[in-house]
Design a protein that fits this description.
single chain, about 375 residues, alpha/beta, TIM Barrel, eight-stranded parallel β-sheet, two-stranded antiparallel sheet, 17 helices, binds inosine, binds zinc ion, zinc, hydrolase
Length: about 375
């Protein structure tokens, strides 16, 4: 269906956005990294010029390998080790997302990576929550209100997932919405962390799992059928279970059918997938096929710094290179809100009072 609305960058910029998959340590402003490195005496940066540093992250993350992509995080994590640093980074994250038109965001990070300065896991979480509270207050005062929820990530190569899951449950009424595992996927299947996932299910808590990014269907299958993930981080390789029949009609295998039937949300991040080699181009990115097949697709940034991106940019790329309409953007935004780790009534409130009126004002058909 073609849309009546011509999607210029200014319209996409104004559209309300919901973001489920954004890493706090993958979204720092280059200037902030430079400042924090100077203040703390971290001398490992490849350059102290903010513009060059932004470009360095982009180039280094563009390797075609998830493992090399992840190496760039050593610099951001290095300058997120004190309470002040964490507050600043979280505050700026909320402000940057709000300025990008994001009205609801889930921001994730791994508390276990922020202990080198002597903070406890609890102190780390509290500093990030404080930064998000400040950022949300300032964004509201500036007329761009945003709701930010924090997800706690455990690193899949490490062995602290049960502890981090307990931390997520402990802070669930103070702004933590759920749990995630991230890091190198090959060799670290989600079932390594079954104990954490079983604990979370017993606690009626929410979690998502990075799966089907650098590794294929077995990882997605384990994440859903063994671990019980509510959502999939990326999940892009689910297309390996979809074949195009002789008549050109896509045929879903049992796992793909299950994911679609159960409305399992896919947290897809097109630019990130190009960098890690999980997809070849925006035009050919599986997100458009999956949208057309009505999977519960959502659009995400993953790491704004490493991909030099924003929600506006990801959406505009899909419009320009894969033919997405404003109705498609509205649909993906409502999908994200329906899939948010937020109580049902609060999700509805944002859908009915923010997302739908926002898209209607831009001329989108309901
Ligand atoms: O796309 C991704 N796939 C897997 N792991 C990731 C991705 N992006 C970031 N991280 C990992 O998650 C940690 C906590 O935020 C980051 O430090 C990074 O190692
Ligand atoms: Zn991610």
């Amino acid at each position: 269906m073609s849309s009546a609305v011509a999607l210029t960058p200014s319209i996409v910029a104004r559209a309300p956005k919901a973001l489920l998959h954004d890493h706090l340590d993958g979204g720092l402003r280059p200037q902030t990294i430079v400042d924090l490195a100077a203040e703390s005496g971290y001398d490992g940066l490849p350059t102290t010029d903010a513009v060059e540093l932004g470009q360095w992250f982009l180039d280094s993350a563009d390797s075609g390998s998830l493992v090399r992509y992840l190496e760039t995080f050593s610099h951001t994590v290095a300058v997120m080790q004190t309470r002040e640093q964490l507050v600043r980074v979280a505050r700026e994250c909320a402000l940057d997302l709000a300025a990008d038109g994001v009205v609801y965001a889930e921001s994730r990070f791994a508390p276990e990576q922020h202990l080198a300065g002597g903070l406890s896991l609890e102190h780390v979480v509290e500093a990030v929550l404080e930064g998000f509270a400040q950022g949300q207050q300032e964004a509201a005062a500036a007329g761009t209100p945003i709701r930010v929820v924090t997800l706690l990530t455990a690193m899949r190569h490490a062995a602290r997932s049960r502890e981090i899951a307990e931390l997520a449950v402990r802070y669930r009424d103070q702004g933590v919405g759920g749990f995630d595992i991230a890091g190198a996927e090959a060799g670290f299947p989600p079932t390594r962390h079954l104990d954490a996932f079983e604990y979370l299910r017993r606690e009626n808590a929410h979690f998502t799992i990075h799966a089907g990014e650098a590794f294929g269907l077995p990882s997605i299958w384990e994440a859903i059928q063994w671990c019980g993930a509510d959502r999939l981080g990326h999940g892009v390789r689910i297309v390996d279970d979809i074949e195009t029949g002789a008549d050109g009609i896509p045929v879903l295998g049992r796992l793909a059918a299950y994911v679609r039937d159960m409305r399992i949300p896919l947290e897809m991040a097109p630019s990130s997938n190009l960098q890690t080699g999980a997809a070849e181009s925006i035009a050919a990115h599986p997100i458009t096929l999956l949208k057309n097949l009505r999977f519960r697709v959502t659009i995400n940034t993953d790491n704004r710094l490493m991909s030099g991106t924003s929600m506006t940019r990801e959406m505009q790329l899909l419009v320009d290179e894969a033919g997405w309409t404003i109705e498609d953007l509205r649909w993906a935004t409502i999908n994200a809100m329906k899939s948010a780790f937020l109580p049902f009534d609060e999700r509805l409130e944002i859908i009915e009072h923010v997302v739908k009126p926002g898209y209607a004002a831009l001329g989108a058909r309901a």
